[in-house]
Fold:
Amino acid sequence: MRRHALPALLALFSSSALTACGDGRHFEHEPVEALPSETPSGDGPGASSGSEAPQAPVVLARGLSVDEVVDHGLRLEVHALQWGDDGAIELLMGATDSARDAAVVGIGAASLEFAEDGVDLGPEALFTVERERALHVALVLDTSKSMVEAGADAALRDAARGLVDALPPSTRLAVVPFATRYETRVPFTSDKAQVLDALETLVPPLDRSGQFTNLWGALVHASDALGGAAEASTGGRAVVVFTDGQDNVAEASTDEAAAHLQAAGATLYAVGLGERLDRDALTSLSGAQRFAETTDPQALGGLFDDIGARLSELARIRYITPKQSGEHVLDVKVSDGPRSARLRLRFDLG
Structure:
């Protein structure tokens, strides 16, 4: 069993919205059939078993914090934790199968259990679950000259198109290619046709402007643009970065990139190609479970597809506490067949 403290924002998923209250649960929309739970005895919401999944640190809302996440076959990724307008605790979360490292699809409200201060709430819990639609995603793509030399430029365009197609229609996307310099080729828009057209024209510069890799500068630029575009939105924010090398421009540092990602409230997914990657830095920024690499350009499609599945399955849980004041502990358990995970968060009602 492994545990870890988590000073991070994270996200879950479901294709239904449900409310639970004192007279039992009822669906507001079409229900999703949950898989039967086979959780061992004693592994309720207040229990602590399983293993940790590393997460990247991000800012939490005042009075809300995640203490730990316990992995028992499922791994949870929290992208946002905040207060709703009506005082509800809002949790934006996703889950993956720990063994296959693949997004779990179709977990519904029947798979959730809640406990406050060690007391299981059962059908008394009041909450809703719905698929997250208000996503902002920045695509930060390496188009340096080495991409042509590796024969990977066409594979990257195909992989990025697959990711765009997989995301919900309302997702707002931006395209930020970079080499020696970076630019916002497409500002945040929900017009997927515009994004796909831009991806089609991504060609590595063959002159000096395409010789170098301004990775951290591009991440700072994209993070700032994301924070500004999503300022009025409570939806999920993600940056998907692809590179085949290390930053050799030094316009910005890894620490600066981390600070700007955090300020934007963004989760980073990183994909690397080849042998010249700064693995430690990319893993530090994204978290080990959101960094993937390959030496085969044709494998990029699968890596981008996995990111698309994770982002598409994010869901927002809104939980209303029966407490009126004071500091409390909320345990949330998610089950999917024999697999489960639990996160513990603290909240302060003053």
About this structure: Residues 1-59 have pLDDT under 50 and may be disordered. The first strand starts at residue 18 and ends at 21. The longest helix spans residues 215-229. The chain is about 20% helix and 30% strand.
